[in-house]
């Protein structure tokens, strides 16, 4: 049973306490959530959650079934095995001096990230991409000195029409 | 017509067919209690502690198959429901609990008697609601009853702020619920059912394990048909007791930690398990790695999350037990397993331990249970607490009557028996309910004698009094060097306690008085209590030590196989 990261996508009712129910379920079953991201979906009153959690396939399958039992969860899918697009957004405030500013801007450019704020002694960088890309950028910027970083956690979607439907015939 | 929130709740309860509520008043449910007197069809039973209300509602639901309803105020009233909600949740009991909450404007301000009960009960309810708009109230009640009673049943909590109970609006009770995220699967997948039938046809040494789901679904006849057609040995879990008549030649009793040796050996030696409405609890399976090592597993359960949770399953069938068995019975052809059944009967000959009661000058707890069984001719509903007396009641009363054994299985809640026996009696007026209590367990909810007296419920109460917290003492004897830390238990004069509650009672210390006392209890019109002073250090055997495989059986000393 390989232990690895799973990406679980859930469509949930947009009601107070749903995030609490979800987080409580993971905690109670002894699961660590790596990241959880929630936002509106294409349907009014429904939100889409992306949860990244680590565990064996059997454990994650059990958690998925338990999540499915939450009344406010409309449907849930483990999309890890599918061809997916996953992104996270990071805002990184990095120390800068007149000497380092252009070097930082070059790195940011290579990563197709953006400078979104400039002050006398810092730059704020906005980066989107998968976790590895954000990690790599972060590692490069680290040598200049990081003042603050804020990351969203992963959001994900299966390509084409693989996802978005209820799993048929599974138990 | 415009109604208050309190009236809307009462009207909605009537729409759901509720006629009995177990509850306890308090500040934040006063508008509701004020309104209850306008609704004589809603019988409110005043318990002595909210835990009594929730256990009574639990057992009421188990014996009637209806949804148990309990009512408590905010804060401490609500938190006193916690144990009972957890108990109902793990044993899949349909229940709706209504709690009062501080007025909306006070929520979140740490107001007097405020507790975040919806937050607290997320992990121990099937679903819960905090009603923040009176326009949602009727729909919420409708949904709560629907969720509690369908699919895998469970408790649902509705938290109702006091000001909403007083607010006024038009009452419309919705005809149906719309819950896009809640669609229980009732019919089994036909392909899987065919696969199961094929495995059953091929099996040489099959075993049928019946759990609580058989009782919840009322699938007694379907189960019996399956067992008889395929000549399957039937073994039950603790909560499966009374799903299949124990006098049946195919009945081989209970499996697990205190199951019969032959049931455990049959499960260990079988080549196919068909598990019906059970969840492979560790008290039933023992060490998972040693569980049924040669068996393929067919698992029928209404909850998809139960399948594959503890045991690897070859043929999963999600659905209501009764619906699945009806279809499965169409797919099977009659078959015999004479050699296999002979083998299990042979094990039964070799290891009868636990079912023979040895000679003793003192009263043995097993003897008391056996005599209650004989004297009632088995025509009783037995309600137990948790501990040795519970296991003796499981082993030594033989349950032929469907759904006649009410016990706290999953949570193991001491103190369950007295309020639960009262709740069961409320659901079964005119029928015999025996409360088998432990001296320790009984004292956890002893105040419910007040409820029993006030309602004159004819519950017959047998206290199996050994002066110890018996099951813990047994573990200390066997696994903790006989260090009886905190298990000797001073008991009050139970007869004196009963007299204080105006309930007739007697104390039995002589073996010859056991049967006459039981007869006197049965002849009494109302409640009756017998304090049976039994052998202090009697143990429950057979026993599988915790963490061992279920065939690693400890037999009663002197009763090992010859």
Automatic annotation (TrEMBL), chain A:
Protein name, as recorded: Acetolactate synthase small subunit
Subunit annotation: Dimer of large and small chains.
Domain ACT: 7-81
UniProt KW Transferase keyword: yes
Organism of provenance: Dehalogenimonas sp. 4OHTPN
EC assignment: 2.2.1.6
Pathway annotation: Amino-acid biosynthesis; L-valine biosynthesis; L-valine from pyruvate: step 1/4; Amino-acid biosynthesis; L-isoleucine biosynthesis; L-isoleucine from 2-oxobutanoate: step 1/4
Annotated keywords: Amino-acid biosynthesis, Branched-chain amino acid biosynthesis, Transferase
An example Gene Ontology CC term for this record: cytosol
Matching SUPFAM superfamilies: ACT-like
GO molecular function annotation: acetolactate synthase activity; acetolactate synthase regulator activity
Protein function: Catalyzes the conversion of 2 pyruvate molecules into acetolactate in the first common step of the biosynthetic pathway of the branched-amino acids such as leucine, isoleucine, and valine.
GO terms (BP aspect): isoleucine biosynthetic process; L-valine biosynthetic process
Record family assignment: Belongs to the acetolactate synthase small subunit family.
Enzyme superclass (EC): transferase
Catalytic activity: 2 pyruvate + H(+) = (2S)-2-acetolactate + CO2
TrEMBL record, chain B:
Class of this enzyme: transferase
The protein, known as: Acetolactate synthase
GO biological process annotation, one example: isoleucine biosynthetic process
GO molecular function, one term: acetolactate synthase activity
Domain Thiamine pyrophosphate enzyme TPP-binding: 385-531
Xref: PANTHER family: ACETOLACTATE SYNTHASE CATALYTIC SUBUNIT, MITOCHONDRIAL (PTHR18968:SF13), THIAMINE PYROPHOSPHATE ENZYMES (PTHR18968)
The Thiamine pyrophosphate enzyme central domain, residue ranges: 193-328
Lineage, highest ranks first: Bacteria, Bacillati, Chloroflexota, Dehalococcoidia, Dehalococcoidales
Pathway assignment: Amino-acid biosynthesis; L-valine biosynthesis; L-valine from pyruvate: step 1/4; Amino-acid biosynthesis; L-isoleucine biosynthesis; L-isoleucine from 2-oxobutanoate: step 1/4
Top-rank taxon: Bacteria
Cofactor binding comment, as recorded: Binds 1 Mg(2+) ion per subunit. Binds 1 thiamine pyrophosphate per subunit.
């Amino acid at each position: 049973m390989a232990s690895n990261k799973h990406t679980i996508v859930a469509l949930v009712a947009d009601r107070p306490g749903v995030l609490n129910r979800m987080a409580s379920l993971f905690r109670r079953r002894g699961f660590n959530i790596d990241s959880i991201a929630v936002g509106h979906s294409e349907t009014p009153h429904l939100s889409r959650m992306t949860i990244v959690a680590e565990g064996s396939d059997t454990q994650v399958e059990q958690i998925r079934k338990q999540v499915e039992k939450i009344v406010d969860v409309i449907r849930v899918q483990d999309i890890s095995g599918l061809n997916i697009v996953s992104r996270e957004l990071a805002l990184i405030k990095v120390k800068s001096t007149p000497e380092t500013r252009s070097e930082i801007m070059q790195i940011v450019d290579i990563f197709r990230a953006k400078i979104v704020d400039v002050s006398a002694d810092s730059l704020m960088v906005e980066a989107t991409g998968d976790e590895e890309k954000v990690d790599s950028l972060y590692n490069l910027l680290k040598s200049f000195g990081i003042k603050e970083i804020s990351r969203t956690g992963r959001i994900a979607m299966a390509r084409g029409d693989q996802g978005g439907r209820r799993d048929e015939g599974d138990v | 017509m415009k109604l208050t929130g309190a009236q809307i709740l009462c009207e909605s309860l009537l729409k759901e067919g509720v006629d009995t509520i177990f509850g306890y008043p308090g500040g934040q449910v006063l508008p509701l209690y004020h309104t209850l007197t306008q609704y004589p069809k809603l019988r409110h039973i005043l318990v002595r502690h909210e835990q009594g209300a929730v256990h009574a509602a639990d057992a009421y639901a188990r014996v009637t198959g209806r949804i148990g309803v309990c009512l408590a105020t905010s804060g401490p009233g609500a938190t006193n429901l916690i144990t009972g909600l957890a108990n109902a949740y793990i044993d899949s009991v349909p229940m709706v609990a209504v709690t009062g909450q501080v007025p909306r404007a006070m929520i979140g301000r740490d107001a007097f008697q405020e507790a975040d009960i919806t937050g607290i009960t997320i992990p121990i309810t099937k679903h819960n609601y905090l009603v923040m708009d009176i326009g949602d109230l009727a729909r919420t009640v409708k949904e709560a009853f629907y969720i509690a009673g369908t699919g895998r049943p469970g408790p649902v909590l509705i938290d109702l702020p006091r000001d909403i109970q007083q607010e006024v609006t038009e009452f419309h009770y919705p005809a149906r619920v719309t819950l896009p995220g809640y669609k229980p699967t009732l019919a089994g997948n036909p392909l899987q059912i065919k696969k199961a039938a094929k495995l059953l046809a091929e099996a040489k040494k099959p075993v049928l394990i019946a759990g609580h789901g058989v009782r919840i679904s009322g699938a007694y006849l379907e189960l019996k048909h399956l067992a008889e057609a395929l000549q399957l040995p039937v073994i039950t879990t603790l909560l499966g007791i009374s799903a299949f008549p124990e006098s049946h030649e195919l009945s081989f009793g209970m499996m697990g930690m205190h199951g019969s040796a032959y049931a455990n050996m049959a499960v260990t030696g079988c080549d196919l398990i068909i598990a019906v409405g059970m969840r492979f609890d560790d008290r039933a399976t023992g060490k998972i790695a040693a569980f049924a090592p040669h068996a393929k597993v067919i698992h029928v359960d209404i909850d998809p999350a139960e399948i594959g949770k503890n045991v690897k399953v070859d043929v999963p069938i999600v659905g209501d037990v009764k619906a699945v068995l009806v279809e499965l019975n169409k797919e099977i052809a009659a078959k015999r397993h004479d050699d296999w059944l002979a083998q299990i009967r042979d094990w039964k000959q070799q290891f009868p331990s636990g079912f023979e009661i040895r000679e003793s000058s003192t009263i043995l707890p097993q003897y008391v249970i056996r005599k209650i069984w004989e004297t009632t001719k088995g025509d009783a509903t037995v309600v137990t607490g948790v501990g040795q007396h519970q296991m003796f009641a499981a082993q030594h009363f033989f349950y032929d009557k469907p759904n006649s054994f009410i016990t706290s299985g999953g949570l193991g809640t001491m103190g369950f028996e007295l309020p639960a026996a009262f709740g069961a009696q409320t659901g079964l007026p005119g029928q015999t309910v025996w409360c088998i209590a432990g001296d320790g367990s009984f004292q956890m909810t002893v105040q419910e004698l007040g409820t029993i007296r006030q309602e004159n419920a004819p519950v017959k109460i047998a206290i199996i009094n050994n002066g110890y917290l018996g099951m813990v003492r047994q573990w200390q004897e066997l696994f903790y060097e006989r260090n009886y830390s905190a298990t000797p238990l001073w008991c009050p004069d139970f007869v004196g306690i009963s007299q204080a509650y105006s309930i007739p009672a007697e104390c039995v210390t002589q073996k010859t008085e056991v049967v006459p006392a039981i007869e006197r209890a049965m002849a009494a019109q109302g409640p009756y209590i017998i304090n049976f002073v039994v052998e202090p250090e009697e143990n429950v055997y057979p026993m599988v030590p915790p963490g061992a495989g279920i065939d690693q059986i400890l037999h009663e000393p002197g009763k090992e196989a010859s």
